[in-house]
Amino acid sequence: MNSRQRRGVILLLLSVLCAFGAFAGVISVISDVNSKVGPEVSAYRLKSDVAPYTSLNTGQFEKVSMPKRWLSDNAVTDISEINGKIAVTRLRQGSLLQSDMIVKRPALKSGEQEIAIMIDAATGVAGKITPGSTVNVFATFAGEGDGSAAQSKIIVSNAKVIDVGKLTALQPNEDDKNASATQAVPITFALSTLDAQRIAYAESFAAHVRLALVAPGSDTTVRPSERTYELTKDK
Fold first, then answer.
1. What are phi and psi of 120, to 5 degrees?
2. How far is CA 203 from the centre of its chain?
3. Residue 120: helix, strand or coil by DSSP?
4. Could you please report the per-residue DSSP string of 134-164?
């Protein structure tokens, strides 16, 4: 083998070594990228804002793919997790859904039934009543015109709230020229049949219905003598 042939073989070997080096470099870069990015998983992003304490549905979210290592441990990767859940706080558009953003909607117990009434936002505990809250329901009744006094009654004590709807504008009665539009919130309770009847009666016939939020762990016993209040009997 002459010198020219030897140079050719050497150049060929160098070319092969360079090719292997370049290939190894590409493999190294890919391996490094994979180690930093990792496998992708599904996550769910909010299409629009969701108000607190409202029920969730799949139409409120869009599916996106993201590297698993970029997601927090409590990120929701299975949309079925929202079934029977409500938003625990206001959810912002574009946010990724996480398990600590949602809670299970309070369920009915045996013998209970759902009943919803509209509560004036000005006379209710605005913004403080949430699903799971316990409230006392007060109703005020005007005197019947025969000298009887107006009364305030605790219609239902320890009523369990299971849902809070959206603030709704109520138009005044057309017959009442001096009335103005008010805002009310639909509140859903889990009650016994008798308490549900009391709530329905109060909504239909009371001058006003108010809710009093009961502090967790407090003594909520209401004696019969404490259920009705008249100003004339106040000492």
1. -60, 125
2. 26
3. strand
4. EEEEEEEE---SSSPPPEEEEEEEEEEEEEE
Q: Calculate the alpha carbon distances from 223 to 152, 154, 220, 228 in Å.
A: 15, 10, 10, 10
Distance of CA 134 to the CA centre of its chain: 17
Q: What angle (nearest 5°) sits at the alpha carbon of residue 87, between those of residues 83 and 91?
A: 120
Cα–Cα distance between 160 and 219 in angstroms, integer?
Answer: 15
Rounded Cα–Cα distance for residues 223 and 232 (Å)? 20
Which of 119, 74, 129, 125 lies closest to 96 in space, CA to CA?
A: 74
List per-residue pLDDT tens for the chain, 235 residues long.
566 666 666 666 667 667 666 666 666 656 665 555 567 788 899 999 988 777 888 899 999 888 777 788 888 888 888 888 888 778 889 888 888 888 887 677 788 888 888 888 766 666 678 888 889 999 998 877 666 788 889 999 889 888 887 777 766 555 544 445 577 888 889 999 999 999 999 988 988 888 988 888 777 777 877 888 887 777 6
Structure tokens at 103: 């809670």
If you search the block for the tokens 């706080």, which residue do you land on? 89
Torsional class of 145: left (φ above 0), alpha (ψ -120 to 50), beta (otherwise):
left
Counting every residue written for the chain, the total comes to: 235
pTM above 0.85, yes or no: no
Rounded to whole angstroms, the Cα distance separating 176 from 178 reads 6
Beta strand 113-120 with 102-104 is unpaired
Phi first, then psi, for residue 3 (nearest 5°) are: -65, -35
